[in-house]
Amino acid sequence: MIHLRSLGVAALLVWGTVVAAAELAVGDAAPGFTLEGSDGQTYSLADFAGREAVVIAWFPKAYTRGCTIECKSLAEKGHLIREYEVSYFMASVDPLADNIGFASEQGADFPLLSDPGKETARAYGVLSPLGYAKRHTFYIGSDGVILAIDRKVHPATSAEDMARTLGELGVPRRG
């Protein structure tokens, strides 16, 4: 019994080390991605290189309470974010059909990206042990470098918080 318990603890320690090693930090190059959006387009981080900043707001699951609140915040107050030279997205590991329906239901005027294979979520270090994305927001400069990571997202004030962070980071305003 002790031997099996020791193996279990060792496995958890190794798994925890792998997860910790994958955690991104400010100053790291953002992992590239190509994901389908709820608007029928495909988006790649490389599309924005040298043009504008990118914000990716990872969320756990379409149609859930906190995610609905966050999506409504971005839909209702997205004009605050669009004052900056930035493209912004919500992203999850939900199937594309779920994100299309969720975006439509919430009146989202921005794309929700779908990562059902979970490769991008893994690369960003947001995949939880339960298989959902953690609610983390990544701010990526036009040079592809991570400018900030918000790991304590407040769904109800997500749009205001994003706009404030973009201003603090010195992202240029649209002219």
Layout of secondary structure:
Blueprint: H1 2-22, E1 34-37, E2 42-44, E3 53-58, H2 65-81, E4 86-92, H3 96-106, E5 112-114, H4 119-123, E6 137-140, E7 146-150, H5 158-168
Parallel strand pairs: 3-4, 4-5
Antiparallel strand pairs: 1-2, 1-5, 3-6, 6-7
Q: Which key phrases capture this entry?
A:
single chain; 175 residues; alpha/beta; Glutaredoxin; 7-stranded mixed β-sheet; 7 strands
Description:
With 175 residues, the chain is an alpha/beta fold. It has one domain (25-168): Glutaredoxin (3-Layer(aba) Sandwich), CATH 3.40.30.10. The chain has helices at residues 2-22, 65-81, 96-106, 119-123, 158-168; strands spanning 34-37, 42-44, 53-58, 86-92, 112-114, 137-140, 146-150. It has a seven-stranded mixed beta sheet, covered by helices on one side. α2 packs across α5. The N and C termini lie far apart (67 Å). Mean pLDDT is 90; it is low at 1-21.
